[in-house]
Every structure is written in C-alpha cells, then in structure tokens.
Specification:
There is one protein chain. Helix 13 runs antiparallel to helix 20. With about 700 residues, the chain is of the alpha+beta class. The protein has a domain of about 300 residues: Thrombin, subunit H (Beta Barrel), CATH 2.40.10. A hairpin with a 5-residue loop joins strand 2 and strand 3. It has 24 helices and 21 strands. The longest helix has about 45 residues. Belongs to the peptidase S46 family.
Amino acid sequence: MNRRLLPIVFTLGLNFIMSFTVTRGDEGMWVFNNLPLETLKARHGFTPPAGWAEHLRSSAVRFNNGGSGSFVSADGLIMTNHHVGADTLSKLSTADKDYYRLGYYAQTPEQEAKAPDLELNVLVAIEDVTAAVNAGVKPEMDDAAAATARRKASADIEKASTQKTGLRSDVVTLYQGGRYHLYTYKKYTDVRLVFAPEFDIAFFGGDPDNFEFPRYCLDVCFFRAYEDGKPAKIANHLKWSANGSKDGELVFVAGHPGRTDRLNTMASIAYLRDLGFPSLLDWLHAKEAFLLDFGRRGDEEFRQSKEELFSIQNSRKARLGGFKGLQDPAFLAKKQEAENDLRKSVAADPKKQAAYGEAWDRIAEAQKAMAAIARPLALLERGRAIDSQHFGIARELVRLAEEKPKPNADRLKEYRDSGLASLELELFSEAPIYPDFEKAKLAFSLGYWKQIEPNDPLLARVLDGRTPAEAAAALVSGTKLGDVAVRRKLAEGGKEAIEKSDDPMIKLALLVDPESRRLRKEREDKVEGVEAANYALIAKALFEERGDSVYPDATFTLRLAFGVVKGYEVDGAAVPPFTVVEGAFEHAKAHGEKPPYALPKSWHEARRAERLNLQTPLNFVSTADIIGGNSGSPVVNRDNEVVGLIFDGNVQSLILDFGYDDKTARAVSVDSRGIMEALRSVYRADRLVKELTTP
C-alpha cells in the first residue's frame, strides 16, 4: 500500500465535534475532538474561528522519544526543545564533534544531518471505537479475560486501520478504560538536524535551576522532516509572532503530555505514595550517583553519559516534587473529599450503586496485587536490574522471534503489525554504542539487583559465580549485537536463529525473559485489567454526574491546554512573568560564571559587539496546564502565531500529575522574541531567520 501522505481528514465518527462544556478555571488537557468552547468564551471572550483547531492540530508533532514539537515552515521545519533533541544530538556526536555541547547550525540544506532513529508523528484523525473494543467482552468474563478481549479487539482495529490508510494507527485508552479512541498518524522517519545552540545556554542553570523560575534558557532545537529525499511540503504550519506575548494574554499549548493520574482513586494514590514513588526514587538516586561517578572519569566518559545523567536528574527532581505533593495533607484532603462526594452520589441511587459501587474496592485490591510484584517487575520487565543497550536489543530480538509468528491479536502490544515499523527503526539504528559505558552501566545495575534481592535464584544464574563487574565485562565483550548487520540476520532468522545463537546477550535475554513475561502477564491480568474495568465504571459515574466536561488523563496523545501569561507570589514576594536577556548575564555573574552558570562565548561576543538587545524577553510563565511530554510544545496566541516554546514547569507545578492548581503552578517557556534575537544576533543564522519570518 502507498504510505505517502493521504488527504488529511479530521474525524470523530462522521463529525468533528467541539463540546460546549464548562470546567474549573483554565484546567484541562483537552482532546481535540472535545474542546471547552464554552469556557474559552465565558472566561476569555474567545471563540476559535473555523479551521483554527484543525490548523493547530495539524501543525503539532510528536517525537518518539517522549517530546513534542511543531511545524514552523512550509518546508518541513520543526521546532522543539534542545533537551528533546538531546538524544539525537548525542547520537550524531563524536569525541571530535560534540554537537550536544557545542551546538550545530546547518548553513546549507546539504549540511542538515540525518537522525539515525528519530520518528515523528502528526495526528491525522480520531475515531471513537469504544463499542468495537468492548464488543468481545462477555458478561461472564472476569476482569483479566475482559482485558484480553479488549487487547485483541484493539489489535484488530489497529491492523485494519493501518491496512486501509497506510498510517500509524493506535487505539488509545482514555478515562482509564472509560473510552477508547483510534488515533491515526502520518509518520516521518527521515528527520534531519538544522540547528541547536550550545548546551550551556540551552540548559543554563543546570540541575539547580531545573523546575525553578526565573529562568534564562534558550532550550530550542530545529529539525526538518523529509520525504523522498526532499524537505516535506507542509500545508499547516505555525507562523512566527514578531511581538510575542504580554502579561495577562491568553495563550494556547498544543502538545503531548505524557501521563497524569488525576482520576486516580485514593487507593491508587496511597500505593504511589507508600511504595511506587519511594522505590522509583531509590533507583533514580542510585543511578544518578553512578552516572556522576562515571562522568568524572574523563571528558569522553562525561560526553557519553551526560545526556542520560541529565534525564535521570530531571526525573529525580520531578518525581521528588510529585512525591512531596502526595504527602501534602491539604491536597490529600481535597482528593478524598472529591472521591467521597462521588461515592455518596453513587450510593444514593440503588441502580448506580449496583453498577458502580464496588469499583473503588476492586481498584484497591489491584493495588495490593501490584505491591506484591512491584519490585521484581521493576527489576526485570522495566530494566532496572539489567541496564544495557545491548541487553535491550537482545530482548527485542528474542521477543520479536517469539511474537511475530503469532496471530497479530495475540502478540504483545509493541509487536503488533501497527507498531513493528517503529520498533524496527529503533532496533536497527546505526547510533553508536559505547562498550566501556555499557560495561559500567551493566555492572551498576547487576549490583543494584544484588543489593535489592541478594538471594534471588535468577540473579545467581545470571552471575554464575561472577561478581557484577565480571559478568558485565564478559557479557559486553562477548556480544556482537553492536553490529546492525548481526541484528538484522538474527531478526531474519527468527526463533531458530535465536535459539542457535551463542551470543551471551541473547542467552541472557532467553534466561530472564520467561520470568519477566510472567510478571508482565500478572500485572496485565491482576492490575491493568482490573483497573481498566473499574475505572471505566467510575468514568461512567462521572459522566452521569458532569457529562463530558471531565477531560481524560494524559496519555502521550495530542492535547490542547490554555491559560494566561501571569506571574505569581512565593512567600509574599512577587515573581514577574518575564525574564530578559540581560538577566542571564547577571545570573551568570552572581554565580561566578562557573558551570552550570557559564554562558557560551558566542553570547559574550555578541554582547561585546553590541549586537545583542539585552532587554529582549527570554523566558516567561503562564497558567497553561502542562506536564512532562509537553516539552517542545508550541505556545501560540489567538491567531495561532508562535509566541513561545514550552520547556519546563516551576517546582509548584510538579503536583499537576495528580491535580490542577493555578495559584502558583506555572508552565515555563522560551519567548519567541528571545529565540529570534539569538538566531539573528548571536548565531547569525540568516537562512533559518528568513525561513521563520517569511509569510
């Protein structure tokens, strides 16, 4: 089937619907087929004109590494964050050419550097497939059997859609199982780097300033999508605002927030507070300490590990903030009150009580089931015990050989036909793998496994009488999986080739996979299946109470958020909404101009030459409802013009995973004026400036 761009039609069944519903304040990560027009009109006097939402939706881009972006020219130019592009920057870098640290600018089209394994998705259509997903669920089925039926139905829907459209097709679970929508995406896999600033300005302030404000970062990166070897021709792209935004102005964010748990029951929150977050934070702290130590060994070791270090540090700080929020008595009381009110409403109606009343208790039982397997699941299936790119490749090959011969509906989700192309893009990536770093990571993770579960019989079989360091050295030295040709040959040879392989990483994957799969299946049956069935009941109860003014939790699918540019107060002190370029120099001076507060030479040179307008706005905050995954999202005004680029939230925003609050929580963005000033005055990126400003 021809997989080139098909005519773009945005649908929900047969009609595109904007819901006229009211919500509280500027709360909400709204799906594009249920936008709160009544709220926008009542609170902000704004009614989007015809085509406004479709244009913004078609301009938004999802990165397969967990970030967002947007088309900003008709020739496929894409804007995102430096930290979203960091993985690609690292993979394109070498010891002699460290684009991640020094930046990159393609002065000609021929210099645009191809990313080794980057996939971008653009949402084409949404269809409600709830009835089709639930069609195979029978009244006599338990939750596990019902979940299996839904997974098979979803696989069939995805396969049929992909065969019909040639597009990536994903069945998305909304309202934790209350509804299911089919999202279809146009894919771009020829993606090339155009521009990135130096790391020192992209992440100015480093970990100490992360999740803080005021900020002074140029966290921006530009890529270009290609088709058939030429820049992609884009019908819908965002225009650049010459004037930026102002205090109190309404702004919109179109991006892909990763995950929220705002509909979680108190039992789910208690599990996260008492077990989930403490376990995760323990591992993040240990991994961070290891990465810091490895990076101190030398410049090349730091280069190889720094992107992973900054990712771990970001996760650690974000999860710590969320964990503190889950311990806040006021927040917990608010969540408990909301749950009590809904349960009382259900209990007051015998029919509702019979239909929905047991849902909360069943979810509580699922949390107990999760607690029983949480530690081994995290170690094996989630990779904390065997942290190695080589092992990840081995497991993909082992599972690919096992899953591909099965009927599509019976496979693990990531091995369905709808996702195989994306999986193979990553599996056969030419990105470099560094053996010394691999040995160190694997030794660390095996040591962590031994620390957590010293008497695990599976660990004893993995180590086979060796220390973690000895085992890691032997495994990495002996594997041939760094060679893409070897990977392809094993993948083509299927199960027979895997079973005959003497590669130590393949053997390791075969050794641990049965237990890892068992734990995954137990979670699917006893936790995910129970939660999906019973959160669906709670969602129905909510719909009966409030209609579809209840937006779904984030699922790394495209959402619209909105808010106003607005400062806030901390301990009685006002925090203005904007920072300016001059503030970056002052901030650097106040910290002795030492890393992570050392501005690049290019910025000092531009200042000395008096090219740089020091009063140009650089960063700003707004009340837009965003979380992780929104990184790289465009911030636009009422005219759909780019006024900013989301790159962070303040520390007060870290509780937004579990509940909305706009008193002090803020989204942090790079100002469009700061981006343009840097491109013009610091980097002399005339080709890029012309492309962004051409009508």
